[in-house]
Design goal:
The chain has about 200 residues and is an all-alpha fold. It is built from 8 helices and no strands. The protein is elongated and about 65 Å long. The termini are far apart.
Amino acid sequence: MSEEAPYVRKIDRRTALTWIGVVGAATAVGAGVVVYGPKIGGEPEAKGYGTDPKLAKPEKAPWPRLLSDEELQAASVLSDFILPASGGAPAASALGIPDFIDEWVSAPYPDQLKDRPLIRDGLKALAKKSTAERTAAMTALRTSGDAFFKRFRHLTIGAYYTTEEGFKDIGYIGNIAREVDEGPSEAVKAALDVQLKKLGL
């Protein structure tokens, strides 16, 4: 589909499955119920992890990854269109976002089953475009409010900003142990005092 270097998988299944649980409303990482997905487009029926997932052996995931190589390459191109490398922040594909998308649409849970045809059909259409046609096509998707683009963008951004690189990009400093907590600054205290006085407190 592209004259660019092809995308090479970067994320193992255990990481991708955990990522699903962090990013959204999925139940793929131990939801408490076993969900069986219907056959879609001739694909085999797959079951979920159930109440006691064992993610230590990701190769034993009960469902196959469904994206074709062409769809995976299209996911790489589109994720980088949405979040290209900028300053010190890497492009989405450098963090393995296409692998996350593949795992997301492959999982047999309600949200993923709903997203699967939308995202796969969109990626298949994009994969058919030439390099010259692709940018115009992606720009048109972005400006048209296309449902496929909106959902793909939501998943891409959601996954990206749960990574350490994404945290750094937005200046998030949580999850860091501190030996000393100096408390709020004097400026914050002064602003709080003003608001408290307005409330008569």
